[in-house]
Structure formats: structure tokens, C-alpha cells
Amino acid sequence: MSHVTPRALPRVLLVLLAGLLGGCAVGPDYKAPAMQMPTGWGSSKTISTKAGDVASLPPDLARWWEQLNDKTLNGLVESAVAGNLDVATAKARVRQARALRRQALAALSPVLTGDASYTRADNGSNVSAQSGDVTVSGPFDSFDGGLSASWELDLFGENRRAAEAATYGLDGAEESLRNTLLVLIGDVTTNYVEARGYQARAALARRTAASQHETAALTRNKLEAGSASAVDVANAEGQAQSTEADIPQLESAYQQSVHQLAILLGRPPASLNETMKRSAPIPSPRRAVPQGVPADVLLSRPDVRLAERQLAQYTAKIGQAEAARYPDVSLVGEVSTSATKVGDLGKNSSISWSFGPSVSVPIFNAGQLEAAVQYAQAERDEYFIAYRSTVLTALQDVENASVALRQEQRRNRSLAASAKSYRQAASLARTLYQSGSSSFLDVLDAERSLYSAEDAQLQSRVAITSDYIALNKALGGGWSGAVDTQAPEVHDQMGPRFVRANWAQEFAASEQN
């Protein structure tokens, strides 16, 4: 370590301060990449309502699930945000990233360390020991204390780049939490809609089976009257039983959706059985979804923002690796005091000090540091490509969901017309069969077609809402409320105060013994 006299100390400080102020952070400075975005969506027609086309409006994504007008669903979403385990994991990662950033920022500050020691020794009764200005023989005490300080000047920005990368990492963790919430709300809403769809389809199967059993009873009566055949009775009963066979499968799918809902809420699988027991209509969107322009996804999609923050983080890591190739300059100093009595500590005669700069220069490392820079550059390229891929995927998601929703709405209108026609045909065929003007095959075919059309219409209603959910997710609709990322999941019982209290009690007990 180099030592300087007090007279030369101001000059040294001025030189180091000038070097510090002139220092720079090496490596590339991050700039958000410019992405060529389409000026409009390929499916220029958005979902229309009575209010007309809403393509030019910016996306309104705040609490989009409330547009489905289902209070039970709203409550489930609130519970999921509070209790979901993936969300809890994402919040823990935010706390980790926040702590890492604090560590990185702390590296920019001076470090001060204190130390103290006490020694009792005996070097032999016939030999005198010199301790300071005092000569002692036999057992003697030695007290030492000191302070040491160091400050890495970071002239080339290695620590600053590390703090920059940690800041971007914290931003990324927060975006990852928002993306987890987006996926969660979409999954909760989708599973809820599917559960209501299975409920509605099971109810339809029960109603249809009951109606078909009535038809079978009517056919049996006609058989006894001699105006129907045993074949007609067998066909009627077989169709009723076939419809009833759909009910267990639908009930099983319903229970699986409810169980998945409970897991998403962080609860046991059967905990929502009572909540979902009472049937409710399949939620349906009541208004169009404004899509805005493609560039909106750069700001609204948390996965896109996450990819951009990761690109920024790994750009900063290039500078961190580059700075490691330059000299490392630190200021180090130490003050120490020693004496044979506690009262003599801190006196001029027992104080020693040292101060000076410390320089570490990498001279030969066989290309290891250069390879580290190249690795960081390649890693940055990987995240740049990942960012571009994420943007393209986001655009694809919006286009696909928009097309799917619009086409499913068209399909649903045709299914509704089909079900209406089959309903009329089934009613007419049954009337004609009762009057003896039609064969039973007409009734059988009409009832089978009606059940199939009504079931398909229910499935289409579920698909419409699922596509509506997918479109809101694709546009970046997630949780816009506050999320507490400060509170830990595990509260330790043994904190610092508890440790200190136990140590004091044990020390007091040892003194008594």
C-alpha cells in the first residue's frame, strides 16, 4: 500500500477527484430498439356492436372482465389475485430483484469496517515483554481496535453498469409479475366460462333426455294401441339413453373446471363446489373490444415490456464486462490503536494510520476478459432476438383472437338460426306423429338434430367468450390495481431482537455460573 504525508494528502485527493469526475462508464448505452410496426391490423374490421365500428379507439383494458357482468366471476378474480401461488412467487422475485438492486447500488458507496480484539498472554516468568512504552513480565493484557475504509472509485463504470443492470432487472421482475397477473385473470375467466358452459350443456342434456323419454312413452302407448312398432319403441328409448349418457361426461368436465378454478385461487380443489353449485348463464361480452393500433402492444403487453427490460439489462452487462478489462482504482485507509489498558486506547502514542490509493491493473489473462465481453455481447443479441420474437407473437395473438372472435360470432348466428329451425321441425314432427300423419323416424331425426344444434350453440357461446378473453389478453389486459410486493410470505419467528435477547440471557447465566 502506498502512504502519503498529511501535507501531500490534499493534492492526492484533488488528482483522484479529477479522475473520478472524468471517469466514464464504458460499454454501449442502452436505447430502446426501433421496431417497424404495421400502421393497422390485418383484420381491419373489429368486432362491431350497435354503436358501430370501434377500430380507431385505443384499447380499454381496465378491469375488462367486468364487461361480462357476472358478480361471481368478479369475486373470483379478486380472490385469485390475492391468493394465487404463481402470483406469490412473482412477488417474491420482485423482492429478490429489489434486494439485488440495493446490493448493486451499495457497491458505489465507501465501505467502513471496525474491528476490536482482546488478548491475555504470558511469555514466561523470566522474560520481559515490551508493550508500547511499558515493559511487563508475566501475564499481560493487550487491547487492539481499529477502523478500515475503502472506496472503489469505479472510474470505468463497472459498478455503475452493474447497478444499471440490476435496475433493469427489477423493472423486468415487476413486468413478470404483471404478466403473471394477466395470465391468471385470463385463466380464471376462461375456466369459469367453461364451467358455466358445461353446466348449461348438462342441463340441456337433462331436458332433452326427459323430452325423449316422453316420446318413448308416447311410442309405447301407440305400440299398445297397435299404431307403432317395437322398433320405434326401441329407437325412442335408445335415443333417450344415448342423450343421458352425455350427462356424466359433462358433469366430469364441469367438476374439473371448478377444481382448476380453486387451484388458481390457491385453495383446495373442492372449495368452490358450493359457490358454483347454483347454475348461472354463460357470461357473454356486451360490447366490442377496441384494438387501437399495433404499436399499442409495445406499451400494454407486459411480456413485451419484460423482453425489452431484459434486453436493457443484458446491454448493461456488456459495459460491466468491458469495465473489468480496465484498471481498478480504490482509496483505502486504516486507523488502529493498541494498548495494555483499555483507558490507554485512542491516545496519540497508541494510534497508527495509513491512507492511499490502490490500483489493480489486469496485465495478462489469456483473453479471459475479452471472451467475457464477447459472451455478454452474444447474450445481448439473444435477448434482442427474443424481444423481436415477442413483439411478433403479440401481434399474431391479437390478429388470431380478433379473427376467431369475429368468425365465431358469425357461426353463432347461423347456429341460432339452425336451432330455431330444428325446434320448429321437432315440434311439427311430433304433432304429425301423434296424429298418425308422420313416421317415427321423422320424430327421431328431428329430436336428434335439435339436440345437436342446441348443444353446438351453447359451445359456440362459450367459444365467443373465450375468444373475447383471448383478445383482451392479447391486447395486454391484466390487473390494473395495486399489488403489495413488500410483505413476505414467511414471517420468521427468530428475528434480530429475539437473537439479542437470547444472547443476553445466556451471557447473564454464564456469569452467574
Low-confidence segments: 1-6, 12-22, 46-53
Helix content: 55-70%
Radius of gyration: 38 Å
Per CATH, the superfamily of the domain at 9-72 and 111-118 and 138-167 and 277-512 is Outer membrane efflux proteins (OEP)
- Average of the residue pLDDT scores: 87
Give the helix/strand class: alpha+beta
Cross-sheet strand order for the largest sheet: 1-4-5-6
Assembly state here?
Answer: single chain
At CATH level 3, the topology of the domain at 9-72 and 111-118 and 138-167 and 277-512 is: Outer membrane efflux proteins (OEP)
Helical stretch count? Answer: 12
Summarize the biggest pleated sheet.
Answer: 4 strands, antiparallel
What global shape is seen?
Answer: elongated
- Termini separation: 47 Å
Membrane topology: Lipid-anchor
InterPro entries: MdtP/NodT-like (IPR010131), OMP_efflux (IPR003423)
Family: Belongs to the outer membrane factor (OMF) (TC 1.B.17) family.
Subcellular location: Cell membrane
